[in-house]
Amino acid sequence: MELLTATNASRLGIGLLAYLVLQTLYRLYWHPLRRYHFQLVKMHKQYGPIVRVSPNEVHIIDPTFYEEIYSGSTRRRNKTPQYGPQFGMPDSLHFFSKRSIQSLSPITERCVLKLMQRLQEFYEADQVVRLDDAFAAMTSDVITYYSYGESQGFLEDATFRSEIRTLVNELAATSHLNRFIPVMSMLLRRIPPRWLAALQPSRAATYDYLASIYALSAQSAVPDAAAAETHRKHMKHATIFAQLSDPSIPASERTRARFQDEAVQFLLAGTETTSSILTYAAYILGRRKEYVERLRAELRTVLPTPTSTASWTELEKLPFLTAIITESLRLAPPIIRLPRVAPTETLVYNGYKLPPGTVLGASAWFIHRDPTLFPDGDTFDPERWLQGEKSEHRKRYMVAFSKGSRGCVGINLAYNELYLALAYLVRRFEFELFDTTPEDMEMVAETVLQVTRRGFPTVYARITGLVGE
Ligand code: HEM
């Protein structure tokens, strides 16, 4: 047999390289799974509740199987490396318990009141406001306060400056790449932001912001127990990072890399999610004046004047407000794809054996539209949540925050923000949508988050009046 010559070997090498580049480009830009969600819709229509989306991944839309995939701490479930750090929150982190968030609620309320003041300024100046930017500024100020002990002034900015939104967008946009090249996610997390800024000067401001967040988080990553204790005592209040640097957490989990990952995770998970639900709810209320009237009448029972304040506990008891929030979470769950792996367990669905290590998924978008639970599932209908036992049964299948050991740690904070912001907005202001149509709100693609034709769900509005008593 003829030996491989040096020339042939280099041709082969070049050919192989070209093949890999072309394959990567194809997968990134033309492969049908780029619009993964829409492909899933088609596949489930054709093949039923379980479909195989890649050699090692299945997607199951049967609501009764959801808790098998996203199960609690006794049955171990891992995230896949493409979707963020592998470790969960330390058990000792009580920061996000309901009681803790209730006691810290004045921080959220301060940011919500600042938002109201800004909306009043838009009203007085007769200016159109981009509500999604305003809500994202609020959630950004809340999460930076909870993380580091001070808000970073996003709400103060004339146009609600948006380093976090841009960063979230950048990171979410790499999610597609990460699916095909899992190591990419880890590499991107380790590249110093100043290198990224040098590579992409037009995005320097975003990477500078990332560097500043890394620096803030690193201040908390003090592996020495005594130093960590001193540091913790000097934090202004029990911030997330002060708790993560608690000496009771093993030093191996208090590394700089861990803190950087958490910093990004909290910014990603804690801002665009809550603000997109507020944006969606405001969009619905902008179109349905009858809902606004009914909600305002209910709000008057705990907010007697437009500038009254109420506690989260009081607001949570209001059925119609709760119905509007729950229905928004049902129809517009912000996070689309959340695979899990059962590392040691074989799961069985409808006779199909799913061996340990299989990547399993069940997107909230499908569960929330299951026709047996939510008839006419594409329609916004708050009445679904006002039907006693029937509604209680449906609530068990609400999975916008996912479930199990790796479900949302920030669920209480999210509800705290949703209740306060929506209640104060509706009690104080009349508003109308501006240049925002149903087509603008439709999902056209997905990264990890929903993407519309205008990028993030975008809602413009005019504050047309202050509500009388
Ligand atoms: C309406 C608002 C929110 C929704 C719908 C939501 C939804 C979710 C979902 C579905 C997950 C699981 C992601 C996965 O499986 O990969 C998750 C995880 C997470 N969320 Fe939220 N979230 C919201 C608000 C927040 C807030 C305000 C915070 C702030 C602290 C937060 C912090 C987190 C964190 C840190 C994780 C990762 C947990 C882990 O990996 O163990 N989320 N969220």
TrEMBL record:
Highest taxon above the source species: Eukaryota
PROSITE patterns to which the protein is assigned, alphabetical: CYTOCHROME_P450
Positions annotated to bind heme: C408
Membrane-spanning segments: 12-30
Gene Ontology terms, MF aspect: heme binding; iron ion binding; monooxygenase activity; oxidoreductase activity, acting on paired donors, with incorporation or reduction of molecular oxygen
Cofactor list: heme
Pfam families on file: p450 (PF00067)
CDD domains named among the record's database cross-references: CYP58-like
InterPro entries, A to Z: Cyt_P450, Cyt_P450_CS, Cyt_P450_E_grp-I, Cyt_P450_sf, Cytochrome_P450_monoxygenase
Protein keywords: Heme, Iron, Membrane, Metal-binding, Monooxygenase, Oxidoreductase, Transmembrane, Transmembrane helix
Similarity section: Belongs to the cytochrome P450 family.
PANTHER family in the cross-refs: CYTOCHROME P450, N-ACETYLTRYPTOPHAN 6-HYDROXYLASE IVOC-RELATED
UniProt-recorded name of the protein: Cytochrome P450
Native species: Aspergillus indologenus CBS 114.80
